[in-house]
Amino acid sequence: MLNKARAKLSNDLIYINDRGYHLPNKRAVVICYDGMDPSYLADATTRGLSPNLSAMAQQGLYASAHSAMPSFTNPNNVSIVCGAPPRVHGISGNYWYDRATGEEVMMTDAGPLGAPTILAGLSKAGVKVAAVTAKDKLRKALAVGLVGDGGRGIAFSAEKASACTLAEHGIAGEEAQAGEPVPDQYSPELSLFVLDAGLRLLSSGRAEVLYLSLSDFVQHAHAPGAPDSDAFIRAVDRRVGALLDAGAMVGIVADHGMTDLSLVDGSPNILYLGDRLDARYGAGQTRVICPITDPFVRHHGALGGFVRIHVLGDLDHAEVRDFLSRIPGVELALLREDMCRRFDQPMEREGDVAVIAGKGVALGTHDGAHALAELAGARLRSHGSLAERNVPFLVSHPLTAAYRRKAATEQLHNYDIFDFVLNGTRETEA
Ligand code: ZN
Ligand code: ZN
Question: Which of 144, 153, 332, 409 is deepest in the core (most CB within 10 A)?
Answer without folding.
Answer: 153
